[in-house]
Specification:
The chain is of the alpha+beta class and about 450 residues long. It has 14 helices and 20 strands. The chain is globular and about 75 Å long.
């Protein structure tokens, strides 16, 4: 047997050793959150929401979410009151041993047990229901009330109300087996939208306490002041390096934000620093050529427009004899400025419409036959291009995320059902899930095209 001598590097890596060049790049995350003088791209980092009771706190149905959480809050309050009475008789009584652990009535977590010990009573609040990104391109309703969320994170500062807008870059966390990926969202993300996901916002919000806003701050409603999460450091460094192009507005923090999104899609970057990205959060260079900077920034805007507006109908199709022949649309001019998803002008109300597009579980005819998706017993999609499956996020193609998440499921312990068709019914869009699948196929093809057109970058120590 031929032996190979392994020598660990200064980081203690025996295998898949890190590239020293990576450490010379600019880190995305700050040394300390909200530190304005940070030497990083962002001055804030957050983790996605971890409810630790997803079956209860997430649901495709807004109404069923309320029913589930109201039932659980009522049961919690009942347990809290009983414990408060029981402890009067036995001061040494432990909440852990007293509470009813029936999983069809409640999902206990460490913090909720502590609330029982303190005798806290919680109130069900309908107004805290928020749309969240649970998995890639999968939105549902979240009960965002801190007492019922084990790790609520900083999202009350990133989306203080449903009317406050923000953009979030979610990247793969450290120490996971999945390859690195990044995804942008404009709603609260779950912790596992990326594996142990770490999030970088465009903005954050502070309560308005008559602070003097700085040059780059924008007032957004009287109650809050919007702050930039892109650091002054990276803006000044980029402007100094690239200067001002005649006829163009000065380089902005938003340009840098989209540069980051574009650059993080670079195949060369991901492959060259694959080992580093499993052990550290991303660090980026500012490319030497100003033309490459703008190419990455513009590509980032295009990718963001696709990935944020994925619910917009981007293609038309005919359903003939239960079959949709997928045809990649011709290249068209697209408004790559970010916009909120528009409401469909077509409204469906008949039960027949809902029944036709109802989904139970999408599948391939055979494991390796991915050019065809059997949507339901009445609809099949054919001629899906192989290229579409090249767009992978969080370890799986975007298409397969839709197939996995948009199926009727029942939580074993609680018995709670989560039915994606409820989202269609409540939004009066029977064709929502089918349109979603076709749109994700399209955006996958377009994403691959944009990524292949990114500038080449030479990484040399």
């Amino acid at each position: 047997m031929q032996w190979q001598t392994l020598t660990p590097n200064q980081h203690g890596d025996w295998l898949n050793q890190r590239n020293n060049l990576f450490s010379s790049f600019i880190p995305l995350e700050p040394e300390k959150k909200f530190k304005t003088e940070t030497k990083s791209v962002f001055n804030l980092i957050a983790i996605g929401v971890a409810t630790n009771r997803d079956a209860w706190a997430h649901n495709f149905s807004k109404e069923k979410l309320s029913e589930n959480m109201l039932r659980m809050v009522d049961f919690y309050n009942e347990q809290s009151k009983k414990f408060s009475e029981a402890i009067k008789e036995n001061p040494k009584l432990e909440a852990e041993k007293f509470i009813d652990t029936n999983e069809t009535k409640i999902s206990w977590t460490v913090n909720l047990k502590k609330d029982v010990e303190k005798g806290k009573i919680h109130k069900f609040e309908e107004k805290v229901r928020r749309i969240a990104m649970y998995r890639p391109f999968t939105k549902n309703w979240l009960y965002y009330e801190k007492s019922m969320i084990e790790r609520p994170g900083l999202w009350s500062q990133l989306f203080p109300t449903k009317n406050h807008k923000n953009l979030i870059l979610c990247v793969t966390g450290i120490g996971v087996n999945k390859d690195f990926s990044v995804l942008i969202t404009d709603v609260i993300p779950d912790l596992q939208i990326q594996a142990n996901g770490q999030c970088f916002p465009l903005y954050y919000y502070e309560e308005n306490k008559n602070q003097a806003a700085n040059l780059f701050d924008t007032s957004n409603e009287e109650q809050y002041i919007r702050r930039d999460a892109i650091s002054d450091f990276i803006l000044e460094r980029a402007r100094k390096q690239y200067g001002i192009i005649r006829g163009h507005a000065p380089l902005s923090k938003e340009d840098i934000f989209y540069y980051v999104y574009g650059f993080l899609h670079s195949t060369q970057y991901r492959e060259t620093f694959a080992s580093d990205l499993k052990k550290m959060l991303p660090r980026l260079p500012l490319v030497e050529d100003v033309r490459d900077f703008w190419a990455f920034s513009k590509a980032g805007r295009k990718l963001a427009a696709l990935h944020l507006n994925y619910e917009l109908q981007v293609t038309s199709y005919e359903l003939q004899d239960g079959v949709i022949d997928y045809l990649q649309p011709e290249k068209e001019e697209f408004d790559y400025e970010y916009q909120m998803a528009a409401e469909s002008k077509i409204k469906y109300y008949t039960q027949k419409d809902f029944d036709l597009y109802k989904v139970e579980k999408m599948r391939f005819p055979k494991k390796e036959q991915k050019d065809t998706i059997i949507y339901n017993s009445r609809i099949t999609i054919k001629n899906i291009p192989e290229t579409a499956y090249e767009y992978v996020v969080n370890g799986k193609s975007a298409i397969e995320w839709i197939m996995e998440r948009y199926q009727i499921s029942k939580h074993k312990e609680s018995g709670i059902e989560n039915n994606p068709n409820d989202w269609s019914v409540e939004n009066k869009k029977p064709r929502y899930i089918l349109d979603l699948l076709l749109n994700v196929i399209n955006l996958s093809v377009k994403t691959v095209e944009i990524v292949k057109g990114l500038p080449e970058v030479k990484f040399e120590e």
